[in-house]
Amino acid sequence: MNDSSRGTPPPIRVLIADDQPLVRRGLSLILSPDPSFEVVGEAENGAQAVALARQLRPDVVVMDIRMPVLDGVAATGELTTAVPGCRVLALSTFDMDEYVVGALRAGACGFLPKDSSPEDLAAAIRTVHAGDAAVAPRLLTRLISTYVTAPRATRPAFGGAGDLTPREVEVWRLMAGGLDNAGISLALDISVSTVKNYITSIFDKLAVRDRAQAVIAAYESGLVTAGDPAGGEAR
Predict the structure, then answer these.
(1) Is 111 helix (H, G, I), strand (E, B) or coil?
(2) What is the pTM of this model?
(3) Which site in 37, 111, 169, 230 is 20 to 30 Å from 67, CA atoms measured?
């Protein structure tokens, strides 16, 4: 009888990709003792990560952003096409890193600084595995507003944005401003479940995968800019 038949979910299958052997080993030692994780492989560059993911079909790839041969941004882009069921958690040395934005745009479901605690690592892997974005909303806004801009005179019309209702545009704007679902609920005086319904519709119409990509789209389209009040803490 397997674990799932007893009501215990199967472990989250994790592939670790980092060009530093000590980092790969350290991450593996953090995760392996926890029965809710199974480290199925390690890769030393992005190309190897993509090849192993095709072969091993992990649930989550913990992906260093800066690697030789193929960096983590390009590898993430390939993975979202080659292994669409696999989620990517990007690792970065710094909180504010333009490569992280590239990885989020390419399909990563979140990012984590390399100096994060083992508890934060485990929580982030569980979060992206569940289909959510593993990044604090206000940190996401600061990061994206720093590196994603649209020239004011030539702002593109983001695909699908014209199909949004006025209320969906307002929810999108508040999301880009760094508010979580509870904050949007309070700002618009609607229930959290209604906010979730709006966000699901926004994702569908914009053809984005998650909150991170929706926020990137808001800045790329010019819906918000770093100097706008809707930009929250972004300055």
Answers:
(1) strand
(2) 0.71
(3) 37
Name residue 159's amino acid: G
What would the two tokens of residue 209 be? 């995968």
pLDDT in tens, 97-149: 678 888 888 888 888 888 888 998 999 999 889 877 777 665 666 777 676 66
DSSP string, 31-47: HTTSTTEEEEEEESSHH
List the 37-43 sheet strands across, edge first: 37-43, 12-17, 60-64, 87-92, 110-113
Please report, to the nearest 10 degrees, the dihedral formed by the alpha carbons of residues 165, 155, 78, 119 taken in order.
-70
C-beta of residue 110 within 8 angstroms of C-beta of residue 90: yes
What's the distance, Cα to Cα, between the start and end of the chain in Å?
55
